[in-house]
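Reviewers of the previous submission asked for a worked example of the structure-prediction workflow described in the proposal, so we include one complete record here. The input consisted solely of the amino acid sequence. No template or homolog information was supplied to the procedure at any stage.
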Amino acid sequence: MRFAGFLIAISLGLGGCAAAPMRALDTPVTALPAPETTPLWQTLVVPEEAAAGRSGFFFLETGLDAYHLRLTAIEAATRTVDIQYYIWHFDGSGRAISEALLRAADRGVRVRALVDGFHIDEAAAPLKRIARHPNVEVRIYNAFRSSFRSNLRRYTELVFDFSRLNQRMHNKIVAVDNTLAIVGGRNVNDAYFGLDADHYFLDRDVVVAGPLTRDISASFDAFWNDPHAVPARDFARDDASSVNAGTVWAEAPDLTLDEFPLPRRIDGAALAEKFNDLRGRFVWAPAMLALTSPGPVFAEPAQLPVAEIETVLLAQLGAAQEEVVVQMSYVMLTEPREAALAEARARGVRMVLQTNSLASTDSSIVHYGYARDRRRFLRHDVALYELKNVPQNARGMAQLGIVPEKTTLHPKTLVFDRRYVFLGSFNLDHRSILYNSEIGILIDSPLLAARVLEAIAWDMAPVNSWRVALEPPRRLVWYDDDQTPPLRHDSEPNAGIMAQILTWIGYFLPIDHLL
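From that input alone, the workflow returned the following structure tokens.
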């Protein structure tokens, strides 16, 4: 413990002295300025709705739908594709989406890919090959100096440059022809699309068409043109020859149908049919974009002149009159949040929260931040549900014969008064306020609110979640209402001893602000 504290002290002392990889400012590159001329805009956007300032929305509730929509959007691009991700792995889905991007680039589409630097290790080497395509540029945001190297080297650098590398770009965006965008909680990884037998991240994205896509693209441009967005080619030391969709994986074995049972391309008539179906899914509504910039290290260069997410959410909570429903992977209280919660309850607002159980979370030590506040939520009469680790709602995977051993709740969704829906990459934790950049969309639509509430209600159903209660004097109990009579647990159900130990560590370390 003392040695760990010593390393942290060194990292804090030297972090500010470390030279971050930076890019000289050049002429800004921006999103497509006139998307109205593209076939995608003319196909999807209703002129009267766009003229009234309304955009089209629908939700991606299943991993399979989320994958298919990403592939469809990229295959339909005629001018530009911009993607921004925290994690981009090169498993089956990562390879398939990369191939689609390269096919778009082969057609003459300009592709910009912006990836956070935290996970850029040796396994991310395909990014350097993809960046050799003449129509593709890949940039790494807040890169390690040891990017594309072993994790041993990268973690050593993290210790000695902690204050900088602790700032992360957590946004997840796909924007095509500045017309169609996908925003939400999913990264590029099989576990988010229902293709990993070990782990599934139950998540939600929103698909956007029309005017709001311009604001989403503008947020992408702000990060793309930031000096902390470093070209991947700056780390390349291998062959400089160009690549295309057929050659980037020349040294990798082909994916078999068992390894990746989904289509890897969509052509011609199949693509046209998908877009005919797509038009009918949109609900048109007013909406606004909310963002957070990275933390204090990058406060100046990354400033974005839009509403801060925490401010927007506190305002919505303060205005709520009837009901607030929250489905969130990571949750912690702050003083302003607890004050707004108490005021809402005093107004008679019904409060519902679903989050991960210790058994379902992907980070036991992060779970501590929620576990510490759990009794406070219950004392404010919040109806509390925690996802089971093997629920029945691993949506869409049964048709592939995949039953994940563990499911983690990953949406970042709030619904206010059955009218306003907030969805994005923002968690209700301290990290999302202090250190991460995040993106979120607030939509004013009772119809969309009803649809997402129906999905959340299923996720909270007894087959999927435990109901948490507080019994006198301060005893937490978990009820499995899927049993008759309900099965009562007096401690965290299905949680292993190591997970419990890691959670308790949080009570003894000064890490609250890092969670």
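The longest helix spans residues 364-379. We consider this example representative of the routine output the project will generate in years two and three.
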